[in-house]
Amino acid sequence: MPKLEVKGITKVYKKGAIKALDDFTVTLTPGVYGLLGPNGAGKSTLMNIITDNLNSDKGEVLYDGESIKKLCKDYRSVLGYMPQQQGLYDDFTLNRFLWYMAALKGLNKKEAKEKIASLLDTVNLTNAAHKKLGGFSGGMKQRALIAQALLNDPKILILDEPTAGLDPKERIRIRNFISEIAEDKIVLISTHVVSDIEFIAKEIILLKQGKLVSHDTCQNLVNEIANKVVETEIEKEELKYFQDNYRVSNLCHNDDKIVVRLVTDNPPENHKITIANPTLEDLYLYIFEQGM
Ligand code: ADP
Ligand code: MG
Fold first, then answer.
1. Which residues, other chains included, contact 109 with Cβ-Cβ below 8 Å and sequence gap of 6+?
2. Spatial CB neighbours of 98, under 8 Å, sequence gap ≥ 6
3. Of 4, 15, 18, 23, whose CA–CA distance to 211 is shortest?
4. Neighbours of 82 (CB within 10 A)
């Protein structure tokens, strides 16, 4: 079973002024992993290091026990990567873009022809093959980028915010699609949108300011905040107080009252509260909303 070990990775920028990753360690085996953290957490930095597009200051990445630096070309041949920022060759047709990427990845003509045809079908873009990328919708662009990452049949697939900028319908389509292609691959998806990974990830990796907070199944993670999610009814006039003093994960207007959902270690004492079932979104708030 393929195994990717990320060991003690530290990365600083600006001569140490910014610590983008701080002694980050995790081991990945086949399945979908959700890398979850707010903007600036270090997700892209980690992905750039895992894909050997950036050098770390400390630590190493091993694929099946061998350093990826040593494996070099052999590693690249099992790797598929969709970077976050991508110049999208707007004047290329999708077909030309995929042929170009296939050449970069060293596929021969016969392999490229077969692979491109089957991938166009997989990402449901066969009809758009001869259209220019510049005219694609956000969802079509993302699917085109995922298709290029799959050209070499990668065993490791790294997707940096594959659903950024998509509307809910497109997000769902991409999510289901990732789930389908994930079989027997190591798939790492970064996002700051909980629902992108909540139901398809076998494990969630929480990254905060370059540090691993925890990684576990969604169920185990939300169990960490059992009894910390409460709902209570408040007066309209109290809303500001609650927003200033609690993590409010949801609020619902109910005639002249408001029902608030709070994620807290110290539930309000002068209100009648009910304990709610925690979700990954509640946990996200608990971890990333500080000082409450
Ligand atoms: P994320 O992908 O989670 O949004 P990044 O890995 O892009 O996070 O960034 C992590 C931190 O490193 C941020 O503080 C960001 O500003 C900083 N950073 C990222 N790339 C560079 C760079 N090339 N030069 C300087 N700082 C950078
Ligand atoms: Mg990023």
1. none
2. 112, 116, 119, 120, 144, 147, 148, 151
3. 23
4. 22
CB of 44 shorter than 6 A to ligand 1: yes
Amino acid at 238: E
| 104-135 tens-digit pLDDT | 998 999 999 999 999 998 888 999 999 999 99
> Which ligand 1 atom lies nearest to the CA of residue 45?
6
pLDDT at 168: 86
Distance 45 CA to ligand 2 centre (A): 7
Query: pTM of this prediction?
Result: 0.92
Mutational pocket test of ligand 1: of 11, 44, 208, the residue with most ligand atoms within 8 Å of the beta carbon: 44
pLDDT lower than 70: segments of the chain: 85-87, 291-292
**Is the separation of the CB atoms in 93 and 116 below 8 Å?**
no
Distance 130 CA to ligand 2 centre (A): 30
Classify 252 in phi/psi space as left (phi over 0), alpha (psi -120 to 50) or beta.
Answer: beta
The atom of ligand 1 lying closest to the CA of 14 is: 25
Ligand 1 pocket, 83 CB below 6 A? no
Nearest-atom number in ligand 1 for the CA of 161 is 2
Ligand 1 close to Cβ of residue 208 (< 6 A): no
In whole angstroms, what is the distance from residue 125 CA to residue 111 CA?
19
Going from the Cα of 22 to the center of ligand 1, the distance in angstroms, rounded, reads 13
Distance from the alpha carbon of residue 208 to the mean position of ligand 1, in angstroms: 12
Residue with tokens 């892209």, as numbered in its chain: 44
